[in-house]
Amino acid sequence: MRQLLRLLLLTLLALTLAPGTALAKKGEGSVGTRVNVTVMNEAGEAIPTAVIRHPDEADRHRVNSVDGSWEEEVLYMPDGTELIFEPGLVLFLEISAPGYETQVIQYEVRKRKNFVEVKLAKLNFDDEEIEEPMMSFGRDTPRESDSSAGPAN
């Protein structure tokens, strides 16, 4: 009985002194308001090769190759400043992908639910009309047959 009481007291003491799991408050540790951009084609399928960039930024940000989404709450500009996404900020983004027309969108950041869907149109160009110039390189031109010339050995 005495050992059971001692075990119970030690367990209670350990539980009261053990650090509890602290729950983080919403927004704690985040810099700005999260903006989510999803890039799709006209059929509603994700474009895995799409990239997103701010016009003043040099870096291109790749979208998730599975669902075509990109999310961020801050962009780092070439001059070292941070563009923090805050409610009321008008954000310009350039979205492009190989084989699709590039779009520049303007979006005003809200307090929550910042989900933007961008549909890129397929780039239509007729490459059959393009004539490629013929350039000869050394042996590309046929040899003249000269019967007096023998093998090169």
Judged by helices, strands and strand pairing, the structural class is alpha+beta
CATH superfamily of the domain at 31-123: Carboxypeptidase-like, regulatory domain
User: Can you tell me the CATH topology of the domain at 31-123?
Assistant: Immunoglobulin-like
Largest β sheet strand count, sense and barrel closure: 4 strands, antiparallel
Lateral strand order in the biggest sheet = 3-2-7-8
Helix content: 10-25%
Shape: elongated
Give the distance, in angstroms, between the N- and C-terminal Cα atoms: 107 Å
Q: What is the level-2 CATH architecture name of the domain at 31-123?
A: Sandwich
Write the layout of secondary structure elements.
Layout: H1 2-17, E1 35-40, E2 51-53, E3 61-62, E4 69-72, E5 74-76, E6 82-84, E7 90-96, E8 103-108, E9 115-119
Parallel strand pairs: 1-9
Antiparallel strand pairs: 1-4, 2-3, 2-7, 5-6, 7-8
Describe this entry's structure for a reader.
With 153 residues, the chain is α+β, with helices and mostly antiparallel strands. It has a domain at 31-123: Sandwich (Immunoglobulin-like). Helix content is 10%, strand content 25%. The protein contains one helix and nine strands. The strands form three sheets. A four-stranded antiparallel sheet has the order 3-2-7-8, with no helix packed on it. It has a three-stranded mixed sheet with strand order 4-1-9, with no helix packed on it. The longest helix has 16 residues, at 2-17. The protein is elongated and about 120 Å long. The termini are far apart.
